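Box 3.1. Reading complex inputs
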Amino acid sequence: MLHQQTTVTLVPPAWAVRREAGLGVPSLPNIGQAVVGTITGAAASAIFIGALRSDAARFVGALISGAIGTYFAAVSPLATIPHEIGLGMVCTSASHLYYALARQYA
Amino acid sequence: MARKKKGPASERAREARTGAVKTGPIKRAAEAGAARVVERALAPSPPVAKPRPVTVTASPPAYRTLEAKEMPPVVTLGQLGRTIATAGAGAVITAIFITSLQGGAKYVGALIGAGVGTIFLATSPIASIPSDLGIGMLAGSTGWLTLKWTGKVK
């Protein structure tokens, strides 16, 4: 007599929610693209802000970078630019604003 | 001498001679034709179709790509605000975490923040944590590392 074995696949809760909603699970290339895009945006923003001389200029640069990042996150001006770059810029700007306020700049 | 009363035949002859129509089917037809001409003249002219204004919405290329894939093209302001706020919160949390450490532990903290952020980005361990928080943590760690390597931060 044959017995059917039930296979239980453990997935993270967010993936389970996505499956219930009929959405796909992010694949490894998707995750890699998101990570690379975020790092690229964050590094670009950090280099831009770090290149400025005074603390006040860095503060203004962080605000400008945050605004551009928000724009990129909302509407990628080029279809090939993923919005994770914009999110990376916004996040780095936010952390730089914190560094400026907490006087963490060297 | 009494004048002889004119008959219908003489009347038609006079009408044919002078061109003036007084009675009969010719007059009725002429009156009907004139009435039609007057009606046409007085009738309101048919409405001329005005050119409709055409609205052209210029959408960014990324929106067009989404539309081509039949995905919802427009990011609402609420979605954008939630994403930015969550990602910014992740970045600031990481920045506070890193700056609270001392010396070389900051490097380790930044790497830990990036790793945890990557896990959050890929698979939120709690379903209510959005992946944008992981993006913020990863970006915050990367930004701090970049600043440290360039000697701009303590």
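In summary: Chain B touches chain A through 45 residues (CB under 8 Å).
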